[in-house]
Structure formats: structure tokens, C-alpha cells
Design brief:
The structure holds three protein chains of three kinds. Chain A is an all-alpha fold. Chain A has one domain. Chain A contains five helices and no strands. The two termini of chain A are 13 Å apart. The longest helix of chain B is centred in the N-terminal third of the chain and has 29 residues. Chain C is α+β, with helices and mostly antiparallel strands. Chain C has two domains: 265 residues, no CATH class; 86 residues, no CATH class. In chain C, 44% of the residues lie in helices and 8% in strands. In chain C, α1 crosses α10, α5 packs across α15 and α8 packs antiparallel against α10. Classes of the chains: A mainly alpha, B mainly alpha, C alpha+beta. Chains in contact: A-B, A-C, B-C. Chains B and C meet through α3, α4 and β1 of B and α4, α5, α6, α15 and β6 of C. β1 of chain B pairs parallel with β6 of chain C.
Chain lengths: 163, 177, 367
């Protein structure tokens, strides 16, 4: 195998590996972030549940409802990130040839791309937090794109070698 | 160091001394000031990481990690600045961790210095023990926010004085022809 | 490189270049002293601190990594241990801030090594010794830079030794651990290296720390992935490089003695080495942590007198007790070190690179 091809294979594997690793970290960070904002920023906490009508639920159960909602949402988010992240890491190390994670990654990519301008649309005012959120979403979109692109290129390169 | 660089170092040191003065004389406002400073530090670290990525790390093997870390740090820094109800407990825990870590590093350096037979090990040991004592005092007084601002202010004064002293170091050297 | 090459092998090269035993001892002592002349030592003997040619581990741990501290570090390491190969290297699409560090990558047969040797011509034996140290290190430390830099000096953990058996080459994985006190296990391929540090200017990102002592072992041929080479592996053939270093030292010293009209890069005194090539090759390729005994024995055979063991304190008494310090052995060494450092830093500064700071030029006196 020539040097350039070997270098490219190494590069794409690395992109997929670190993409997977940091996608998991981004997922954990997003969950922690929302948790911190909810616990330490009263405005944010009030905003989250402002549109929800809890009048029919027994008052003593309201905290339980809040907690369960958050837990379920967080678990779903973490699971999606883990599927993509672990799948990418295994694929980069040649330990798994299943590319199921790529389909979910493409879906997550589309969602991330949509979320970037949505930050501006939904914000009451454009401040540093909005800009930071946009940056995080944009970076996640870039990460996913890089992962998918690298997987595609890697498949072509390895396919060339075998063919 | 050029004259401008020296002036910059001295100016930064004086600013830090002023900040320490504010913290030590107005503890209740100083508490919010700590949050603000932490936010600024984290934000600056994030921006620096991103600058490093765009100027250098993107050419490096596995350099994309700098981009991802930089964005997370920047987000964390900005987020810290928006937290209006940070329990004082968390700030103290943060300070305790920093002091304890610094103390452990100093003691490890002291052990290495002793192995080399260099007298510096005694100084480093004392420095490390002091850092660990500060951490211990913070743990004991975890419910007292005045302790947090006092130690943070003291740390700022120490760093400021060091910066000013280093600004007067000689640079450049004689070239024999 | 270690004491085996900087001291004993340099002694052998000096004898082969035609120097006497005493002259060779002075040259080889100066060459090895470059690895010992730290600010701590200079403080102890009350000598100028700007003559420092190395930094102790503890000095580096306490070194600041602001712009002034970085310049201090770069001046020493780029001048004496990682002489830059190409101060005017070009890489399309790379900003200056990156190129400043890239251009400090060390490599052999450079214009700077030519200037180093030419600068030592007509000067003291101490100047020759310093030049030999610098020259030898350009071979061992190639592809690393003498400035703290994550983007240049970092590597992945993917190291493999290339082993030849019956004419075919195979790879043996190299494992790293982070325990400086434990000697490298060369039989099981377990070596010590420095920990990954994510900060660009962290001290741990100076030189070849990420490759551990591998560049200093003459027997090992290995491949690894440096941070700067765009995912391309580099193969470091130490046996071949050390042989060339030895040959080039002989050629350089013949030039310094006046036996060669000029010093050209790419020449290695193959004719002088030829009768001893097998013997030298055997020493270089022998799998051992340090080859001092073998080089010392070889040196004894060449000169008829075994070279004395290196003693860092040998000339310190002389230096401390006299008022005319510049006439002493260490006085000559100090002047030569300052001269060489100034020359290298001047070149770096004139190439538009601020990483080694600037040099105040003052005509004082000739050495």
C-alpha cells in the first residue's frame, strides 16, 4: 500500500474515532448543561415548564413528573449519543463492520443543522449564551459530517485495496 | 522582553492586585466577582483553545480534539457567567480542588528534588503542605463563603506579585564576535 | 544522545581525525559537558548564566512558559540539542505562527550545522567539542524541535521497532509507560516516555519526550507517527544515522585541524571509517542501554591510552580558584557556548522567527 493511501486511511480512522469519542462527551455535556441551568438558574427553570398545564395533576406528584420527564429525556439523549459514539469507535478500530450508527449519525446531522439557526429564532435576545449554543450545535454538526464523510472515504479506500 | 511587554506584565499585575483588593474588602460582592472571574477565565481558555486550533492544531495529527475541547470550554465559561443562583458550596469545592491539586504537585516535585539532592525540596515541601492546609481549611469551613473569597483574594495577590517581579527580568544576551 | 556517544564516541572520532589523546580528551569532555552545563551548575561556580547549554529536569519543571520563558528554553535547546534544519521551510496554507515552530524542526546536514562547524574553526578545543555535540545531536534528534510545541513534538502511541532477521524486516510493537525512575526494558520493548500534555507550550512538549529515549539508543530502528507529518509514518534508522554522525564528526574535525579545505554537508569520512566499520557497526547495533564500555575500549585501542571517565567537577576547582577565569578550561567552554548560542539565535531571529528572542550584539573580544 503506498504511503499516501496509508496516511489517508490512518487519518479517516482517526477522524471517526475522535468523532465518536467526542460525540459521547458532547452528549454528556449537553445533559449536564441543561441540568446545571435548571438547578442554578431560576429563569431557565421557569421557562422550561411555563407552557405546561399541570393543574390536573396532584400537587405532590408535580416534582416527580418533572424529575421523570427529565430523566427520560436525558436517557434517550445519552443512548443516541452512545449508539453513534460507540459504533464509530468500534468501526474505526476495525472491530465492527456494521454501519448502522452511520444512519443515526446522518439523522442526528440533519437535526443539528436545523438546530443551529433555530437558536436565533427561539431566542428572546441574542446574547453570549445564544452564540455559544449555536457554536456547540454547529460543532456537533461538523463533527457528524466529518464522521460520515470519513466513513464513506474509508470504505472507498479499503474497497480499492481489496479490489 | 520589550518595554511594551514589560509594561503589559506590570499593568496586568496591578489589575490583579486591584481585583484582590475588591474581593477582600467587599466579601458579599466578592462572591459574585469570583463567579465572574471563573467565567472569564474559562471563556478565555476556550477562545485560546479555538485560536490554537485554527492557527496550529488543525495541521496536527488528531488536532480536531482541540476544536471540540475549545467549544466545550467556551460554552462552559459562558454558561458559568449566566448562573445567578450558584450554591456557594460549589465555589468552595472548586477552590478546594485547585489548592489540593497544587499541593500534591508541589510535594511530588519536592520528592524529585530530594532524589536529586537539591536543597529546593524543603521549600517545595513547605509550599505543598501550605496548599494542602488551605484546602483542608476550606473543607472545614465549607459553609462559610468569607473563607472562599479570602483565599481566592490571597491567591490573586501572590500571582500578581510574581508577575510584576518577572516583568523586571533581563532578556537578550551578549554575543561575542 | 547519551554519554556513550557524546563523550567516548567523540573521543574515538577525534583520534581518528588526527588529534592527540590530550586534545581528544578536551574535545570529548567539552562535548559531554554540553549535557551538564545548566544554570544550577553555573550558579554553583559563579559563572555567567547565559552560558547554560542545558536545563535540568527541575529547572524545566519550574520554568515559566510565557513568552520570555519560552525564549529562554528555545535558545538553549534549539542551539545545542535540536539545531534547526531549515529556517526558511515553506508549507502552503500554513500560518506564520505555525511555521515559526515548524521551521525549528531539527535535522542533519543543514546550513546551520555548516555554520556551527565553520564557526569553531581557529577557535579552542572547547569550541570544537561543543560543535561536535551539536552536530551529533542533529542526527539523533532529527524530526523534533527544540521548543515546547504540541503540534510539532507530539506523537501518537503507535510506535514499532523494525527488526531485521535473515534479510527480512518485521515490526515489534513498542509499549510506553510513564515511570522515569524505571530503566527501559529493551528486551520486552517497554520504554518510558513523557505524558501527553494538551497545552501547546507545556514543557513536556519539548524535544523528543514523547518518543522517550528511543532517539538516544543507537541500536534501534523504529517507526512512529509525528504530529506534523500529516499522518505519514516516519522511520528513524538509528544505526545508520549514528554511523553517519560518527563519520561526519571525523570529517568535521579534520576540517577544524586544517586537513580539509572546507566543510561540506553530506560528507562522512567513509575512507577513515572503512578499516573499523565492522567494529563500529557492532558497537552501534549492540542491544544495550548505554554503550560507554564498548566505545571506551575502542578508543583505548585507537590511541593506546584509555579515555578517563567523565567527571563533571574536573575543571571546576580551577575555574573557581583563579581570577583569570577566561583562561581556564571552563572559561574557554563558557565563551564558546555563548558564541555558539548567539550565532544560532541570531540566525533564527534573522529568519523572522521570534521564538529564540533577539541577540544584543557587542564586539567584545576574540576567543
Amino acid at each position: 500500500m503506498d504511503e499516501t493511501k496509508e496516511a489517508l486511511i490512518k487519518k479517516y480512522r482517526s477522524n471517526i474515532y475522535f468523532g465518536g469519542r467526542y460525540f459521547i462527551l458532547f452528549g454528556v455535556w449537553s445533559v449536564l448543561r441543561i441540568l446545571m441551568m435548571f438547578m442554578m438558574n431560576r429563569e431557565f427553570a421557569e421557562q422550561i415548564f411555563s407552557g405546561v398545564d399541570l393543574s390536573e395533576i396532584d400537587e405532590s406528584l408535580v416534582p416527580l413528573v418533572y424529575s421523570l420527564t427529565f430523566i427520560i429525556a436525558f436517557v434517550i439523549a445519552i443512548v443516541i449519543h452512545l449508539i453513534i459514539g460507540v459504533g464509530a469507535i468500534r468501526y474505526s478500530r476495525d472491530k465492527g463492520h456494521r454501519r448502522f450508527f452511520l444512519f443515526i449519525a446522518v439523522f442526528a446531522l440533519v437535526v443539528s443543522v436545523i438546530f443551529v439557526p433555530m437558536n436565533l429564532v427561539e431566542a428572546d435576545k441574542i446574547d453570549a449564551t445564544v452564540i455559544a449554543s449555536m457554536m456547540v450545535d454547529a460543532t456537533m454538526a461538523y463533527l457528524l459530517f466529518d464522521m460520515v464523510y470519513s466513513a464513506f472515504k474509508l470504505k472507498n479506500l479499503i474497497g480499492e485495496g481489496r479490489g | 522582553m520589550t518595554k511594551i511587554q514589560r509594561l503589559k506584565e506590570i499593568f496586568t499585575g496591578l489589575l490583579m492586585l486591584l481585583g484582590a483588593l475588591i474581593i477582600l474588602t467587599e466579601p458579599s460582592d466578592g462572591y459574585l466577582f469570583i463567579i465572574f472571574v471563573l467565567s472569564v477565565i474559562l471563556t478565555v481558555m476556550g477562545i485560546r483553545k479555538l485560536f490554537h486550533y485554527f492557527t496550529m492544531a488543525r495541521f496536527m495529527v488528531d488536532g480536531k480534539t482541540s476544536l471540540y475541547k475549545g467549544v466545550m470550554m467556551l460554552d462552559f465559561g459562558i454558561l458559568t457567567g449566566t448562573l445567578t443562583d450558584v450554591p456557594r458550596f460549589y465555589v468552595l469545592i472548586y477552590l478546594i480542588c485547585i489548592h489540593a491539586f497544587a499541593g500534591i504537585i508541589d510535594i511530588l516535585r519536592a520528592r524529585e528534588a530530594k532524589a536529586y539532592g537539591i536543597g529546593l525540596w524543603k521549600y517545595k515541601t513547605v509550599q505543598g503542605v501550605i496548599q494542602l492546609l488551605i484546602a483542608a481549611v476550606c473543607i472545614i469551613n465549607v459553609n462559610n463563603p468569607r473563607i472562599a473569597v479570602f483565599f481566592f483574594g490571597t491567591g490573586l495577590i501572590y500571582s500578581a506579585l510574581l508577575r510584576i517581579v518577572y516583568a523586571f527580568r533581563r532578556t537578550g544576551f551578549v554575543y561575542i564576535q | 544522545m547519551q554519554e556513550d556517544f557524546h563523550y567516548y564516541a567523540t573521543y574515538c572520532a577525534a583520534i581518528l581525525a588526527g588529534y592527540s589523546h590530550e586534545e581528544s580528551m578536551d574535545i570529548s569532555y567539552s562535548s559531554q559537558f554540553v549535557d551538564r552545563c545548566s544554570k544550577t551548575l553555573l550558579l554553583r561556580i559563579n559563572a555567567p548564566l547565559n552560558a547554560a547549554t542545558t536545563q535540568l529536569q527541575l529547572e524545566m519543571m519550574d520554568a515559566r512558559t510565557d513568552i520570555v520563558g519560552l525564549q529562554d528554553i528555545t535558545r538553549i535547546w534549539a542551539s545545542f540539542h535540536f539545531l534547526p534544519k531549515d529556517l526558511y521551510a515553506v508549507k502552503q496554507g500554513h500560518p506564520k505562527i505555525y511555521m515559526n515552530k515548524y521551521r525549528l524542526i531539527c535535522g542533519p546536514d543543514s546550513d546551520l550545522v555548516k555554520s556551527t562547524v565553520e564557526n569553531a574553526k581557529g577557535k579552542t578545543l572547547q569550541a570544537a567539542g561543543i560543535a561536535m555535540h551539536v552536530l551529533a545531536d542533529t542526527w539523533a534528534h532529527s524530526n523534533f524541535a527544540g521548543t515546547p510545541s504540541l503540534v510539532i513534538n507530539n506523537t501518537t502511541d503507535d510506535f514499532a521497532e523494525i527488526v531485521s532477521k535473515d534479510g527480512t524486516e518485521s515490526e515489534r510493537k513498542i509499549k510506553f509507560r510513564h515511570s522515569p525512575g524505571t530503566p527501559d526494558d529493551i528486551e520486552n520493548n517497554i520504554y518510558t516516555n513523557s505524558l501527553y500534555q494538551g497545552s501547546e507550550n507545556a514543557i513536556m512538549n519539548l524535544g523528543h519526550g514523547r518518543a522517550g529515549h528511543l532517539p538516544d539508543y543507537s541500536f534501534v530502528k523504529f517507526k512512529y507517527l509525528p504530529a506534523w507529518n500529516e499522518y505519514r509514518y516516519l522511520i528513524k534508522d538509528n544505526p545508520s544515522d549514528y554511523m553517519k554522525a560518527f563519520g561526519q564528526m571525523i570529517y568535521a574535525m579534520k576540517y577544524l585541524r586544517g586537513e580539509e579545505a572546507e566543510f561540506e554537508t553530506g560528507r562522512y569520512a567513509d575512507d577513515v571509517i572503512a578499516p573499523y566499520k565492522e567494529r563500529i557497526d557492532a558497537i552501534i547495533r549492540k542491544r544495550q542501554l548505554i554503550a560507554s564500555d564498548d566505545w571506551r575500549d575502542f578508543g583505548g585501542e585507537l590511541s593506546g591510552t584509555a579515555p578517563e571517565e567523565f567527571d563533571e567537577t574536573r575543571y571546576q576547582g580551577e575555574y573557581c580558584s583563579t581570577s583569570d577565569k577566561e583562561a581556564t578550561f571552563l572559561g574557554h567552554f563558557i565563551n564558546a557556548a555563548i558564541m555558539h548560542k548567539g550565532m544560532v539565535c541570531d540566525h533564527i531571529y534573522n529568519s523572522g522567527n521570534p521564538l529564540a528572542g533577539f541577540v544584543w550584539k557587542r564586539i567584545v573580544k576574540k576567543i
